[in-house]
Amino acid sequence: MTLVDGKTELYGIIGNPVRHSLSPVMQNAAFAVMGMNKLYVPMEAPDLRNAMIGLRALGFKGVSVTVPHKENVLAFLDEIDPLAEKMGAVNTLLLRQDSVGQTIVCGFNTDWLGANAALAAEHLDLQKSRVLIAGAGGSAKAVAFGLVQAGAEVVITNRTTANGEALASWLNCEFIPLADLAWLNADVLINTTSVGMEPDADGIIIPPTMLSKFTVVMDIVYAPLNTRLLREAKAAGCRTIDGLAMLVYQGVEQFKIWTGKTAPELVMRSALEEELRRRAGCSSAGNCGGTDPSACRKKL
Ligand code: ATR
What we know:
The protein has helices at residues 23-33, 48-57, 82-87, 111-120, 138-149, 161-171, 228-235, 243-259, 265-279; strands at residues 9-15, 38-44, 62-65, 79-80, 92-97, 103-108, 130-134, 153-157, 174-175, 188-191, 216-219, 239-241. By secondary structure, the protein is of the alpha/beta class. The strands form two sheets. A six-stranded mixed β-sheet has the order 2-1-3-5-6-4, with helices on both faces. Helix 1 packs across helix 8 (243-259), helix 1 (23-33) packs across helix 9 and helix 8 crosses helix 9 (265-279). 2'-monophosphoadenosine-5'-diphosphate binds next to helix 5.
């Protein structure tokens, strides 16, 4: 546990709601293992304008931004990373002092980097990959944007055609309705919908019989961690990437922006697994033996 004193540098996450965010656990574990006198706190912020004034006034150094502020926060920035601007969404703020002591707030987006890094860790050549993304919400937008940046061929599928077509047209890529996937071939499937999340853990976004055509299947659902989609994909011979991967890698990129240092990736992942076990009510004597959070099925 970091000792909080007069020199502790403040970091945190703003959103509404934000109390269940896993980011504090992950970032505080990273700061602690690196011996950094920094603290990361969740801050429920219904009023974004006032929150931004507060962050500047209180000398915060870095902040994560989550729903519903990722787009509206652009109006409160002094500088923005060109790719975050292109995406129209920011999930990371860096606050620094200029030469006359004025606070400058810079906006970045690490959500899309997170998905790319999770796939790159599986040694996928994204420039040669065809990726089917299920979903058309905020998460799908970040994942799809990143893959297009990396040169992948992206295909969107979604329950509501209008939403899927809107995302596909923004990215200039193909849309295929969920009902018409039988003839589609792709290397990677990424589920960005909430299908399969507790309490509907039996849900699966596409029929299991279709999974064998993918080399890699990734799910962004992490409650449960071992979703039905991932279990069926493994059984069909696919390599799988679980829902903590994107969360960890977007956090790894935030840590780099805030500290300039390489993040302790494994420590961050372990801290998240431990927290998921804790929230699922497992103990070392629990049904997963305390070693396999993917075995947990309880509602978080
Ligand atoms: P997020 O910010 O996590 O992406 P979101 O913006 O609410 O969340 O998007 C949720 C996505 O999951 C949408 O693509 C949604 O499909 P619709 O556009 O049809 O609403 C999809 N989704 C949610 N529940 C679903 C379900 N039961 N079956 C299929 N798709 C579902």
